Amino acid sequence: MTEKTEINVLGCGSSFGVPLSHDIWGNCDKSNPKNNRTRPSIFIKKAGKSILIDTSPDLRKQLIDNKIDNVGSVIYTHSHADHIHGINDLRTIALINRKKIPIYADKITLETLQTSFSYLFTKSTTHGYEPILNANTLNGDNIEIEGFKIEIIRQNHGNIDSYGFIFDNKIAYNLDIKYFYDENYLDKIDGIQCWFLGCLRYDEHPSHASYSEVIDWAKKVNANQTYLSHMTAHIDYETEYKKLSNNRIYPAYDGLKITI
């Protein structure tokens, strides 16, 4: 019997979240709680083992809201602030569970983390904290983490690369992306069970695909479920749900839970 995988969307907003500071909601209906978006992260779990993807600046609230008290491993997509700056909140998880947490990231992201948050990796006389993370470098090869077989996808994110992942050949995660280096990637994930896809805004952007490109990709792949994430306040939940759900494309929302 195949183990079921539980997916918990902790945050599906872009770098500013929704609402932005100064209570700016843009096109989003503020009366709909599904428009209230923290910065992007998901938590996946099977057979009692778990992986957190990215540590958003809202991680503490996300862990509390979703009653998550243990994290098996963390895997990072890239080094931008909205994906890493909640890393300090792993300290509580590690200290309560009395274990170091393995993290996985490409060389650039790992260097950024170890420089900016050195006290999490090595004990220093300045801070005096016991280190709580074990660092592992992703080198582009496929890997197995916490019982998940993971295919690593390098993708363009403007002037840097980010990384997407395919978990157990049934969940794809591609958020911060301008275009895929692998021209056959959409064919590779054709008909996949679940796809999380970055959809920042309607207009062109130097480091993110436009709305029209994203929707074209989603229709081509025709996943059993496609969820749009990393959304700005330009994109209203109900508007997009009505427009896209007949194609099994849905805007994600914070707290969304899926089992596949």
Summarize the structure.
This protein is an alpha/beta fold. It has helices spanning 59-65, 81-84, 90-97, 107-116, 185-188, 211-221, 237-244, and strands spanning 6-11, 41-46, 49-53, 73-75, 101-105, 133-137, 143-145, 148-157, 160-167, 171-174, 179-180, 194-198, 225-229, 249-251, 257-259.
Which descriptors apply to this entry?
260 residues; alpha/beta; 8-stranded mixed β-sheet; 7-stranded mixed β-sheet
Written account of the structure:
With 260 residues, the chain is of the alpha/beta class. It is built from 7 helices and 15 strands. The protein has helices at 59-65, 81-84, 90-97, 107-116, 185-188, 211-221, 237-244, and strands at residues 6-11, 41-46, 49-53, 73-75, 101-105, 133-137, 143-145, 148-157, 160-167, 171-174, 179-180, 194-198, 225-229, 249-251, 257-259. Strands 7, 8, 9, 10, 11, 12, 13 and 14 form an 8-stranded mixed beta sheet that branches. It has a 7-stranded mixed beta sheet with strand order 6-5-4-3-2-1-15. The longest helix has 11 residues, at 211-221. The protein is globular, with a radius of gyration of 18 Å. 42% of the residues are buried.
